[in-house]
Amino acid sequence: MAEPSHIPHEFTACPDCDLLLQTAQSDHTLEGRCPRCKAVLWHAAKHTDTVSFAAAISGLILFYPAMTLPILKLKMVGQHGSNSLLGGIYRMWVEQEQILAVLIMLCSLLAPLLHLLLTAVVCFSVRFNHYPSHFPLWIKYKCWMQSWNMLEVYAMGIIVAYVKMMHDGEVTVSAGTYCLSGLLLCVILCSQYFHEEQAWQHWEKNKPA
Amino acid sequence: MSISAQQRGIARCTECGKLSHLPDLGHKTTAACPRCNTELSFRKPQSLQRSWAYTIAATALMIPANILPILTVISFGQGDPDTIMSGVVKLWVADLQAIAVIVFIASIAVPVLKLLILVILMLVVQWQLPLSRQQCTILYRFIHFIGRWSMLDLFMISILVTLVHLGNIATVESGPAATAFAAVVVLTLFAANSFDPRLIWDLDND
C-alpha cells in the first residue's frame, strides 16, 4: 500500500471533467458549478442533517404500512382483487419469475429501507459525535442504495396500472398509495438534504485513530 | 489553459471525492483513499472495455425483449399475449394516448436512446471524434438521469399481475420478455455507471 500525501482543502477536481479548481466558498451563492462542464461541485449546507434525520425517521415509520397495505383495489363482475407492494413481489416469485421478483424487491423495498436506515444512522452519528469504525462503509452503502432506490418510478407504475384497468373494472386507490406517497416524499427530502461532503468532513476530523 | 487533476498527479476518490496525490505505482501496488479507504485510480479502471461489454450484451437482449410476449391479459378464458410495442398500440387505440406515450418513452425510447448515446460516447473516446465536449457531457448526464425510468414497465407488470388475479374472470400473466427486458435495464445501468466522462475531456489534454 502506498500512502498518498495530503492536499489542501481549497482545491477540488471536477467529478465529470477532472478540471483542477480552486474553490472559494462564499455565503452568497447556494451552489458552485464547474466553469468548463457545469457539473455541481458543492452546495450550501443549512440545517441539512436535521431535515434529513427527521425525514429518515418519518420514512421508517411509514415504511411498514406502505409495503403491506393494499395500493389499488379492483372490482370486476362482483369479484375483488387488490395488491400491495410486498404482495406484488410474492406473486412474481410464485409465478416462476424469481429474477424479476428479486430485482423488484431490491429497487422498491430493500434499497429504500436501507437508504432511510443508513441515512438515519449516519445523521445520528454526526449529531452525537460518536463514530463507529465502519462509518465510511455506511456512507458508501447509503450512496449505493440511493442509486437503486426507484420508488418514484414505482409510483408512476401505479398511475399507469390504474389508467390501464380503468375501463375493465372499478379501480379504487387504497390506503397503501397514501402511505407510499408519504414515504416517497420522505425519501426525496432525505436525499435532497443529506450533505455527503459534510458527513465525510466530520468523519475525517473526528475519526478514531 | 485548463489543467486536469491527473496532469498534476492528483486522483479524486470515486466514493468520497477527496483529492490525493497518487504516486507512480508499480504493477501490483495499490493506493487507498486516506479518508474512506477506497482504492484510488485516476480514471475508472477498464472503463471503456466494461461499458462496451455491457452495451453489447444489452443490445443483444433488446431482441428477445421486444419480440417475445411481455404480458398476457386473459379475461373470461381468452386473451392474446402482448409484446411491448403491441401493448403501446393497444393503449393508443383505446384512447389512452397520454399513458401510451409514457409507456412508449419508458420502455422503448429510453433503452434505445440510452444504448445509442453510450455507443456515440464510447466512439468519441475511441476514435477521438471532434464532437463538442460540453454536449457529450450533457448526453452522459441525460442517460444517468433517464435510465431508471425504464423500470416502469416491470413495476407495472408486478402491480397488474397481483391486482388482476380473479380466477376465471380475469388474470394477467407475465411473459418471457419481462426477464429479458429487466436484463436490458440492469445492463444499461451498469454500462452508464462504468463509463468515465473524464475520458472525453482527456482528449483535449493530450
UniProtKB/TrEMBL annotation, chain A:
Alphabetically ordered keywords of this record: Membrane, Transmembrane, Transmembrane helix
Spans traversing the lipid bilayer: 51-72, 99-127, 147-163, 175-194
Superkingdom assignment: Bacteria
Pfam families, per database record: PqiA
Name listed for the protein in its UniProt record: Paraquat-inducible protein A
Organism: Zhongshania marina
From TrEMBL, chain B:
Location of the protein in the cell: Cell inner membrane
Membrane-spanning parts: 52-76, 96-125, 146-166, 178-195
Key words, A-Z: Cell inner membrane, Cell membrane, Membrane, Transmembrane, Transmembrane helix
One GO location term (cellular component): plasma membrane
Matching Pfam families: PqiA (PF04403)
Top-rank taxon, per record: Bacteria
Protein name, entry field: Paraquat-inducible membrane protein A
Organism: Zhongshania marina
